[in-house]
Fold each of these.
Amino acid sequence: QVQLVESGGGLVQPGGSLRLSCATSGSIFSTYDMGWYRQAPGKQREFLTAITSGGSTNYADSVKGRFTISRDNAKNMVYLQMNSLKPEDTAVYYCNAHHAFFRDYWGQGTQVTVSS
């Protein structure tokens, strides 16, 4: 059974940094594109960034220059480094595994709160 498990969320002050991690099953990691989304209270889930199986990345304008996605194929892990955090970054952050021909998978989410 495929599982995505996020970790690394928490409370951080504005301007601070956090690194989120997503552990994945080895059966999907090598061929799936991996991404991060977030959902703030009362808002729709928002795409943030993705990295293909080949390592190409793309970012939403809202996080470009502040967030960095990476993947460690040897460890079946994907990371989201978040810098210069703002209160509006407060949300539940979700890891996503996407393949053009198969179903998507989602993690359970990890809470990130940016507040002084």
Amino acid sequence: QVQLVESGGGLLQAGGSLRLSCAASGRTFSTYAMGWFRQVLGKEREFVAVITWSGGSTVYADSVKGRFTISRDNAKNTVYLQMNSLKPEDTAVYYCAAGKRIGSYDYWGQGTQVTVSS
């Protein structure tokens, strides 16, 4: 069992930066691929980024490529999402997720709100 808790969300102006954190419980964190997703009220959840268990490989949605960076620290059981050059369309609730393989996620956090004003 893995429990995930996101933090770091907030309200900021376009062009700013924010770093989200996702702290995981459990001793098997380092064996999971970790992903970030986002959802706007009334819309489907959208993939943002994923990182493999070792951190050796990452994948990004085209909409965030070059602006967002996903990373992880297995010693701290934490995955991060560094978000730069934020745009109003990045406004959403951001969720982290854990899965044994990319594309299949077994555990989800409760989400953290990011609001970008123009």
